[in-house]
C-alpha cells in the first residue's frame, strides 16, 4: 500500500515528518514500540505482523526508559517497506508498576532519546516514533505529543547520534493535525513550511537523505550491539 508523508521541517540536517499508514510499510529502518507490563497496542500489531520473532522470550519488564531493547525484524520480500529493527521503549521507571501521569510524561524524553540512540548505533538512518503513552497509559494527546516532539528535536539540536530522518507515527488525521500544531509551537527551525509539505511515498520507497547537505558524518554501526537482539524463529512447517 502507499502511505503519505507530511514533511514538518528539519533541524540541523535531520528531517522530520509524519506517517499516517501502517508502521511496517513506512520507509524507515527502525520502529520504536512502547512496552510496559506487557506489549502496547502498536507493539501487539507488530507482533502479529512478524510472528517469526520469538516475542515470548522478550523480558519487557527489563525495558526501562533509559534502557530500550533492540530486536531484529525478518525482512519481507514484498515491495512494501521493510524496517530492519524494532526498538522496545518503556515509560515505566519501575518494573510491573504502572507509572503515574507525571512519571510517564517525565519518562518520555528519556525513552525517546535512548530509543533513537540505540537505533542509530545499530545502523538505522531513519526511525519511526509513535506518540508514546496515549494508549494504555491514557496520557493527554497534546501533552504526550509535545513531549515526544520536544525530545526528538532536542536530540537533533544537541547530538550527532541521531538518524537522518525522524518520522512521527499518526494513528489518524486528527493525530496528524495535533503533531503539526505542536511542531509549529516547539520547533526552533526556520526550514518548515506552513503546516508541512505533503508528499506521497510509494510503499517501500526511501525518504530523501538529507545528509548530503549536512556536514556531520553518519555514525557507523557499533561493532558489538550492547542490547539484546532476539533472532527470528525458523519457519514452522
Compact description:
The protein has 4 helices and 8 strands, in the order βββαββαβαβαβ. With 237 residues, it is an alpha/beta fold.
3D structure, described in words:
The structure is a single chain. Helices cover 27% and strands 19% of the residues. It has 237 residues and is an alpha/beta fold. The chain has one domain (3-193, 200-206): Leucine Aminopeptidase, subunit E, domain 1 (3-Layer(aba) Sandwich). An eight-stranded mixed beta sheet has the order 4-5-3-6-7-2-1-8, with helices on both faces. β6, α3 and β7 form a beta-alpha-beta unit.
Key features of this structure:
disordered C terminus; Leucine Aminopeptidase, subunit E, domain 1; eight-stranded mixed sheet; 237 residues; globular
List the helices and strands and how they pair.
Elements (H helix, E strand, L loop, with lengths): L2 E9 L2 E6 L10 E6 L5 H9 L19 E4 L12 E6 L10 H22 L3 E5 L10 H18 L6 E5 L3 H14 L10 E5 L36
Parallel strand pairs: 2-7, 3-5, 3-6, 6-7
Antiparallel strand pairs: 1-2, 1-8, 4-5
Q: Main β-sheet, in a few words?
A: 8 strands, mixed
Name the CATH architecture: 3-Layer(aba) Sandwich
Radius of gyration: 17 Å
Q: State which percent range the strand residues make up.
A: 15-25%
Strands side by side in the biggest sheet? 4-5-3-6-7-2-1-8
The number of distinct β-strands equals 8
The CATH class assignment is Alpha Beta
User: What is the overall pLDDT average?
Assistant: 80
List the domain count as a whole number: 1
Amino acid at each position: 500500500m502507499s502511505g503519505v508523508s507530511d514533511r514538518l521541517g528539519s533541524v540541523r540536517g535531520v528531517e522530520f515528518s509524519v506517517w499516517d499508514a501502517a508502521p511496517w510499510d513506512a520507509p524507515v529502518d527502525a520502529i520504536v514500540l512502547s512496552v510496559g507490563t506487557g506489549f502496547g497496542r502498536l507493539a501487539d500489531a507488530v507482533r502479529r505482523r512478524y510472528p517469526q520473532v520469538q516475542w515470548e522470550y522478550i523480558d519487557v519488564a527489563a525495558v526501562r526508559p533509559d534502557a530500550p531493547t533492540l530486536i531484529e525484524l525478518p525482512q519481507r520480500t514484498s515491495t512494501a517497506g521493510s524496517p530492519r529493527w524494532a526498538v522496545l521503549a518503556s515509560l515505566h521507571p519501575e518494573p510491573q508498576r504502572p507509572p503515574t501521569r507525571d512519571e510517564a510524561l517525565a519518562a518520555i524524553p528519556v525513552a525517546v532519546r535512548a530509543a533513537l540512540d540505540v537505533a542509530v548505533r545499530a545502523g538505522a538512518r531513519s526511525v519511526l516514533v509513535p506518540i508514546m503513552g496515549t494508549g494504555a497509559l491514557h496520557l493527554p494527546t497534546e501533552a504526550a505529543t509535545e513531549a515526544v516532539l520536544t525530545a526528538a528535536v532536542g536530540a537533533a539540536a544537541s547530538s550527532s547520534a541521531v538518524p537522518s530522518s525522524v518520522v512521527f507515527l499518526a494513528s489518524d488525521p486528527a493525530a496528524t493535525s495535533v503533531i503539526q500544531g505542536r511542531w509549529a509551537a516547539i520547533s526552533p527551525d526556520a526550514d518548515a513550511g506552513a503546516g508541512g509539505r505533503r508528499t506521497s511515498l510509494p510503499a517501500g520507497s526511501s525518504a530523501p537523505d538529507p545528509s548530503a547537505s549536512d556536514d556531520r558524518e553518519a555514525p557507523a554501526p557499533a561493532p558489538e550491539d550492547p542490547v539484546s537482539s532476539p533472532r527470528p524463529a525458523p519457519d514452522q512447517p
